[in-house]
Amino acid sequence: MKLQRLLFLFISLMVSGLAVGQTYNIVIKGGHVIDPKNNINAVMDVAVKDGKIAMVAKNIDAKEGRQVVDARGFYVTPGLIDMHVHVFQGTVLDHQYSNGPSSVTPDGFTFRSGVTTVVDAGCAGWRSFPDFKRNIIDRSQTRVLALLNIVGDGMRGGPAEQNLKDMEPVRTGEYAKKHSEDIVGIKLAHYSGHEWEPTDLTVEAGRIADMPVMIDFGGAEPPLPIEELFMKHLRPGDIFTHCFAQLGSGREYVVDPVAGKVKPFVWDAIKRGIIFDVGYGGISFAYSQGIPAIKSGLYPHVISTDLHIGSMNAAMKDLVTTMSKFLAMGMDLQSVIKATTSEPARVIKREELGNLSVGSDADIAILNLRKGKFGLFDYTGHKLESDQKLECEMTIRGGRIVYDLNGIANPVVLAGRR
């Protein structure tokens, strides 16, 4: 045992000695950098120092890096932002997504998909948020931000989410404003009544907090008109999630299923500044909506997963699979990367994220656009055949390598936890 400790000490000193005089902690060599915010789309190197982006340039000397990452043939992007997830995982069985079993823990699903930041979409309300912060936000390596549910008890499911008396806009808005280091917006989810009051209460909370709101709209019979939602209730910058859902008769679609065309008022909503978020989920995306929308040029502002136990092993899988579907439908790679980096950062007013600007946090994804034969299907069983699919090779969070699929770093050192 003593000999093993001495050997470990010797190796540690050798590795430390190699770092003496070296400028950077990590140098990423030869990757194709796509950084939409900075209009970079070229083969370049990236240097990381002390947790920050130190340089993005051609031909950075590999000898200057303590670790060198061989990114040749891969795409190097800002760390991906998944703007719609459910990660308030807990053991209260009747609480569904709010400290309950339907949410997932973030670190097990983020880094292997290139995701460094997630936004929990309303699992916690003001009453349950302290538990969410203590149990999940403060314990995760992933950066976890949140939309605060307009319902004080959060996303408990059932009658709790239909309780208008627990939708308090002043208390919700003021709480969000007070905790704006973690909270970036307000969420309405799963309300199934045929009235506008929950939407208006949510928007009022957003106004008080000076934050966007996300509306998970639907469930009413007959459905409330989404044109009225876009033009009379939401504000510019507010978010319409599950934008390509086709969920039966309880929600109006953006694409007319008979004509196969985007409804004209949708273009007016986009001009007005309404944000379209994918929020893929278990059954909240269908090609019958997505394909005609993309073909007509209706690209979502944000591509997100709606990650939870009902979507992670279903058609959705993960963010890179979801991104691959939008490539297969006709979006270009630059637009897909923008919709998972700089654009969600802009939407949640955290524009310091989602880019590779010098001085920004070194959150980086290295992606492989694999060639082969892939079947990308939706929950209805419709399948697109594709000859390419995105896969995450490496994720760097705050300047530390937290995921390396094939050991492309030299030396191979991961920032793991016991």
Describe this structure in words.
- This protein is an alpha/beta fold and 418 residues long.
- The protein has 2 domains: 2-77 and 388-410, Urease, subunit C, domain 1, CATH 2.30.40.10; 80-347, TIM Barrel (Alpha-Beta Barrel).
- It is built from 10 helices and 18 strands.
- It has helices at 2-19, 129-135, 169-178, 197-209, 226-233, 264-272, 287-295, 319-329, 333-338, 342-347, and strands spanning 24-35, 40-49, 52-57, 65-70, 75-78, 80-85, 115-121, 143-149, 183-188, 213-215, 239-240, 255-256, 261-262, 275-276, 364-377, 383-397, 400-404, 409-410.
- Strands 1, 2, 3, 4, 5, 15, 16, 17 and 18 form a 9-stranded mixed sheet that branches. Strands 6-7-8-9-10-11-14 form a 7-stranded parallel sheet. Strands 12-13 form a two-stranded antiparallel ribbon.
- A hairpin with a 4-residue loop joins strand 1 (24-35) and strand 2.
- Helix 3 (169-178) runs parallel beside helix 4 (197-209).
- The two termini are 21 Å apart.
- Mean pLDDT is 93; it is low at 1-19.
